[in-house]
Amino acid sequence: MDRSSKLPVMIWFQGGAYILNLNADYNATGLIQASSDNFIVVTFNYRVGLFGFLASQDVKNDGDLNAGLSDQRKAIIWVHNHISAFGGDPERVTLFGTSAGAGGVLLHTLAYGGENTSKPLFSAAISADPFVPEIFPYQRLEFQYQEILNATNCSSLECLRHLPTDSLLAANINRPFPRQTTSPLFYFSPCVDGIFFPDLPSKLLADGRFQRVPLLQGTVTDEGSIFAATANNTDVDQFDEFLSAQFPDLDTDGIDVQYSYIPLNTTSQAYYNRASFAYGDVSYTCYGLSFAAAFASANLPGIVPVVQAYWTSFARAHDPNVWRLEGSPEWKTWGSGQRLKIQTNSTAMEMVDRQQIENCEFWAARNSQSRVPKIASYPKPNKDRSESHDLYTCKAPDNAMRSESLAWCGWRYSMASSPRRIMPGAPCLECRRRKIGCNRSHPCSYCVKTKIQCIYPAPPIAPSTAGTDKIEYVERRVDGVEERLSVLERHMNEMKQLVMDRNSPSQGLQDANRPVSEAVAVATHETALSSQATQSIITIEPAQESNEIFSPMTLVSMWQTYLERVDPLLKLIHVPSTQKILMQACKEIKIANPNTVCLTYAIAYAAILSMSPMECISDLQHSKSVLLTRCRNKIDECFSEINVLDTRNMNVLQALVLYLKCGRLDPQGPNVHSLIGMAIGIAIKMHINRDGDQSDIPPFEAEMRRRLWWHILTLDVLTAQDKSTDPCVLGSSFNTRTPSNVSDSQLDPDMSRPPADRPENTEMTFTLCNFTVAFYSRQLTFSNDFCRENPYPILSVQEKCDAIRMLEKQIETQYLQYFDNSVPLQRITMLATRLNLLRMKLSVNGQSFKESGSRYDQQFIQDCALYTDYVSSMKNCQKSSYFMWFFDNLLNWSV
Predict the structure, then answer these.
(1) Does 724 participate in catalysis according to the annotation?
(2) Structural domain includes residue 845
(3) Which of 231, 240, 607, 732 is close enough to 562 for a disulfide, judged by CB 3.0 to 4.6 Å?
(4) With bands split at pLDDT 50, 70 and 90, how would you rate the model's confidence at 642?
(5) Is 99 tagged catalytic?
(6) Which of 35, 99, 517, 777 is catalytic?
(7) Hey, which residues does 128 pair with through a beta bridge?
């Protein structure tokens, strides 16, 4: 590549609702490889929150309104002026982004009223699921400025400019709009400043004052579900209150009627689905459709893909059909009233739902500020509503050239509601195992890059039911139900007998402060309840057991499973103090503190994940997949109820981190790569990352905060490794030291002095090993750009290998020398630590060999063989089978 290459250019706009930077380390390697390395991707950061969108007359007089959008504009100008020096074509620049980044892409088409007195800065735009918040004239946001002044004890903009960043971050929180009692989901947003936006965006769009470029735009099904129902939407009044908190000028009369076609939930969150759809329509879907319709009415080309081949084709030729993947359909244009529907195992064109259009027209007609623009020139399909969901599959044309009659179209993402299955359209086995993106070509780009065989799974064949006698089938089902009931009855009798035995003077009760590792070390896996837990079981009323997804008895059983199988491997919580609040929550789960309930179900989720499918059936009378689904749904509901984005509660953050760390091991689990940014953001708001700045924190709380931060930091590293990106957390952003090497019995909430590290194997030792490996992985296994940004030294491969050898000696001396190889738990954790170190070394050396094209040396081959031996040793530890669930990714890593 040189100055004469003239490659097309794509500029990535990261999301984060204009209050966070969630995709700061976006890695476009896979996207570029999917296009055969024939275009350039540019990424950048921009100011968010009060740093980017604080608005007032003072800021306008002595500063810049919409500073975040100005940062974006400066990046576009820089690319236009200088990209040719890197082989890029300034005449073929495409803006693209998701969420708030996609909203920013759309807003830049409206910049300065669409006027271009000079050469256009970009030639096309891709808007994937755009988020456009309420955009007010800057005078309406004066109250935000005054709130910030009050929160920081300042009286002027000049005073704010001299405050440390941490003080401004502490003030950067959500507050209710005037005349509202509930805080909005997102507080800061762009404003109408008279320059960047000469008028309201809806007015600019309606007047045709936007830049005429090809537009590729789409939305996500049920977009509002992750944000809605942060309040208890139990009735129509709370439903209206939730929407009014987000859109203070909104007339809420009749909104419930407009969405009456959506059935009410049967749970306490009766209006959850209606709130989700309404918020998703007004903040995401309708704005995107309005832009698309306006661009179409201006006779602009705009075609929407969803896979990488369509995106890169669009960036190169402003047409996704030119280089689309073989066998994929031609994407129709808006003139036919169709959009691309991308669904699990099924992708095709569909008619845009008439109900969706009616919803958007409803919002456009009722808002005095015309927040949602009207959809211009919508092609009315000649079909009734009952047929509006029909799919229209398009046959790929013989030649891939773009027709001159193209206008535009939209796409929609939709995840099938049924459990995911491995089908011919699924990722290859290697990408699926590594949980990375697969472009589904044959072979895929990742397998080509790593020079390994690309294998796709064969579609499963459903068993035939022909000739099955229905009566016999029903009889078998009845017999199965009766058998499960008998198992359940036997299990309950055993639990009652256990409680009676434990309560007898001869047997005694295990002290709650007894170290859990001691119980595990002697290989006893019996249920060892504390006196508090026993008293909770004895006083449980049977009538309470049917009102939650798990009975109190079941939750107590899961707590014991957690203590035996999760806590020794993932030391996050303080068992004695947590057990007290959990036992009380299990006793009165219906009225328990929501924060405690959230942690309770996160613990239950981790416990179920550690159990085998057969154990779930025999002990809990349900399949493992059903139990995990129930837990995930309950945890999501808890996070929604307590508004996790605004939380400052330790138990909630512990629940989130535990959910994400275990979710990495759940194929159907949460999107950890997307949610890790939220966990980091909450931790920073709670100042957990600044250990040295808070000397007034009690020793016990400081120790718990250190555990929590280092788990977040480790999760950030693991997630980056899973996705082949760089970590989000910068070294300069934290100074929290590692937790002390002590067991829970050495910690007490009332302690007055910090605990002293113990030179022995404690309950924290294995977790500290993982923290240490993760910390050095940041410096040795990620890109040079990440090292420069932190800054870490740029080391050669040999220097990195030397550093890893020194790290091995440090961990052996500091921790592993105290492990007893005869104790199953200690043996397997020792092997896992050595495997982690060896994987780090192999990653560094392997990448060097691939880049240089040289042959593997003898030492590298010996290390590979040693890794295989360690894996075999771990798998052969029969007495450690209870812990193998935690090491699945490590054991299946491809040497």
Answers:
(1) no
(2) yes
(3) 607
(4) confident
(5) yes
(6) 99
(7) 98, 218
